[in-house]
Amino acid sequence: MNENPQPASPAAPEEDARDRAVDAEIARHTRRSFLVGGIAAVAGLGTWEWLKSSHSEGDVPWPLRQSLQVNEQLTRSYFRPARLAKEFPLAEAGMPKINGELGLDDDDFDADKWSVQVDGLAGDDDSVTLSMSDIRALPRIEMVTELKCIEGWSKKVQWAGARFADFARRYKPATDAHDSYVALRTPDNQYYVGIDLASALHPQTLLCYEMNGRPLEDDHGAPLRLVIPIKYGIKNLKRIGGIAYSASRPPDYWAERGYDYYSGF
After folding, report:
1. How crowded is residue 96: how many other Cβ atoms within 10 Å of its Cβ?
2. CA distance 34 to 254
3. What is the band of 36 on the pLDDT scale with cuts at 50, 70, 90?
4. What does pTM read for this prediction?
5. Where are the domains of the chain?
6. In 3-state terms, what secondary structure has residue 169?
7. Which of 15, 251, 217 is nearest to 98 (CA)?
8. How many CB atoms lie within 10 A of CB 198?
9. Residues 6 or more apart in contact with residue 246 via CB below 8 angstroms
10. How buried is 18 (Cβ within 10 angstroms: 0-12 exposed, 13-18 middle, 19+ buried)?
């Protein structure tokens, strides 16, 4: 029995040609991918530099600001007072997480001494200071709606308080409802939002003083906060210290940092 291995036969010429063709195709694709990737990187860098060099509106480059304005116009076009956020059974209500402490970090704040200043009123006296008893004198409303955070989480919560629409009927704005706004701020002015008046008058917008059957806790805006289910949580200002009607668009904390001013859905 012969145990010596037999010499390998030489590769056929057609196999060599096929291998060379495969190698050439791989090299061609590699060069093309490198060129496409390089062009994409340069284009992306150029776009970013163009955005950075563009003039800004509210600290946001104007091309991005224009996109936000288009989003707002579309959302406002679809707005209807009768279009309600979904409401849920009481059994589904829970406690939302504490998210954001701007305007709530005053260690000397005393809820028992709280008051809210309201400006831009119709009549001779365009300003009034109200207590919690004034707010509680308005019709009390309960609802379970979803608090939606712009970060992506949501929580069903039971709220109780006075409709802003009832508040506005009692404390009438001097401005026309069309294209008017409401500015709300915390007592220390650290956090502030601007709301279009039509959304503020939506039947589910509350000046809220109870959550899940209990008075508001400090971390959730005691003694009074805004609840507006048709907008993201960044508009649901905690601990209201001032309310002002305005014919022009008031400042808004997150809009100044690049977010959609309307922030509705």
Report:
1. 19
2. 40
3. very low
4. 0.74
5. 16-53, 57-100+112-257
6. helix
7. 217
8. 16
9. 120, 175, 180, 181, 182, 183, 194
10. exposed
Average pLDDT (196-223) is 97
In this prediction, residue 117 has a pLDDT band, given cuts at 50, 70 and 90, of very high
C-alpha span between 195 and 119 (Å, rounded): 15
The more confident residue out of 84 and 80 is 84
Rounded to the nearest integer, the mean pLDDT of the chain is 83
Q: How far apart are CA 67 and CA 53, in angstroms?
A: 17
- Residue 60 β-bridge partners: 57
Cα 104 to Cα 221: distance, rounded to the nearest angstrom:
7
Backbone torsions φ then ψ of 241, nearest 5 degrees: -115, -15
Please give the CATH architecture assigned to the domain spanning 57-100+112-257: Alpha-Beta Complex (3.90)
Q: Nearest 5 degrees, angle CA 181-CA 142-CA 127?
A: 35
Q: What are phi and psi of 134, to 5 degrees?
A: -65, -40
Whether the Cβ atoms of residue 100 and residue 151 lie closer than 8 Å to each other: no
Give CA–CA dist 84/33, Å, rounded.
51
Task: Find where tokens 């979904």 sit.
Answer: 86
Euclidean distance between CA atoms 108 and 187, whole angstroms: 12
User: Which of helix, strand or coil describes residue 217?
Assistant: coil
Residue 79 CA to residue 163 CA, distance in Å, equals 18
Tell me the mean pLDDT in the region 190-213.
Answer: 97
**197: CB partners within 8 A, 6+ apart:** 173, 175, 177, 180, 181, 182, 245
Kindly state the tokens that stand for 151: 């970060």
Q: How many helices (H) and strands (E) does the chain have?
A: 5, 12
Q: One-letter amino acid identity for 64?
A: L
Q: Which residue has the tokens 């608090």?
A: 147
